[in-house]
Amino acid sequence: MASQSAELIGLRVSRETTERLQHFTQLFLKWAKTINLVAPSTLGDIGNRHIRDSAQIYALAPGPKTWIDLGSGGGFPGVITAILLSEISEGWVHLVESNQKKAAFLRVALQETGARGSVHVLRIEDAPTKIPACDAISARAVADLSLLLQFIAPWMASGATRAFFHKGRDYETEVANARGRYDFDLVKHQSIVEADSVILEITRMQQLSQGAGAINVAR
Ligand SMILES: C[S@@+](CC[C@H](N)C(=O)[O-])C[C@H]1O[C@@H](n2cnc3c(N)ncnc32)[C@H](O)[C@@H]1O
Questions:
Q1: Is the predicted ipTM greater than 0.90, yes or no?
Q2: How many angstroms separate the alpha carbon of residue 35 from the centre of ligand 1?
Q3: Would you say 125 is a known binding-site residue?
Q4: Buried b (16+ CB within 10 A) or exposed e, 19-57
Q5: pLDDT score recorded for residue 217
Q6: How many structural domains compose the chain?
Q7: Test site for ligand 1: of 31, 45, 52, 98, most ligand atoms within 8 A of the Cβ
Q8: Measured from the CA of 142, which atom of ligand 1 is nearest?
Q9: Is the shortest distance between the CB of 73 and ligand 1 below 6 Å?
Q10: Which Pfam families match (predicted)?
């Protein structure tokens, strides 16, 4: 019998993927009783505030890719990308997280859901020598844009083509500050989960070069 599919922010996902996401949610809520994985005030709306919010990244860049997710914390967005990649049995997500307890949770989450990823208990600053190449990078709630660009510069110089960062309402200030240090193209995607949030997509990044990159607003 064919698996029933469901819809997740415009993505068709199989019953198996839905079950993986449900299993992850149960695990997350169990571990969140003893480890601070997200702001406690958001635990009641994990489906929207965290899972759908994270799934936006895969929806913007679907298909097999090698991802690096910086500061994965409780798994957002990296574990959700890894679960969605399991649907197509291709691609991989390297989760970088320096906190041992969170890393332990991430390992269990990947193992129990069968998601396509692995955990690196590292400082982000040390990760480029351990994980030398990737196609795309994600990060949510980890650092301001200038520091994120500093973090991703080695990967963007060695083949990564796109980076996706969730940002809140102050993103314009962060973009203006980053423009003083980096040249990059930017597409701003309106979040479909949070009215005052965006996902910034960075491409063609170079450090300290002359001239401003193009700014496009996604429709
Ligand atoms: C505010 S949490 C966000 C977690 C997750 N991305 C989310 O959106 O729910 C930031 C996470 O990044 C990790 N982190 C911050 N700076 C880091 C660094 N330099 N190297 C590795 N992990 C870092 C922290 O341990 C924490 O788990």
A1: yes
A2: 14
A3: yes
A4: ebbebbeebbeebbeeeebbeeeeeeebeebbbbbbbbb
A5: 53
A6: 1
A7: 98
A8: 10
A9: yes
A10: GidB
**Residue 177 in domain:** yes
2 belongs to a structural domain: no
Q: Read off φ and ψ for residue 195, nearest 5 degrees.
A: -60, -35
Q: Which uninterrupted H or E stretch holds 67? A: strand 66-70
Record the pTM: 0.94
Is residue 1 one of the residues assigned to a domain? no
Positions in the chain short of pLDDT 70 = 1-3, 208-219
Instruction: Give the tens place of pLDDT for each residue, 173-190.
Output: 999 999 999 999 999 999
Which CATH number belongs to the domain containing residue 198 in this structure?
3.40.50.150
Q: Residue 213's Cα: distance from chain center in Å?
A: 23
Task: Please tell me the predicted confidence (pLDDT) of residue 43.
Answer: 92
Q: Known binder of ligand: residue 57?
A: no
The token pair that represents 174 in the structure block = 């962060």
Q: How far is the CA of 102 from the centre of ligand 1 (A)?
A: 9
Q: Is the CB of 141 under 6 A from ligand 1?
A: yes
Domain range for 43? 9-217
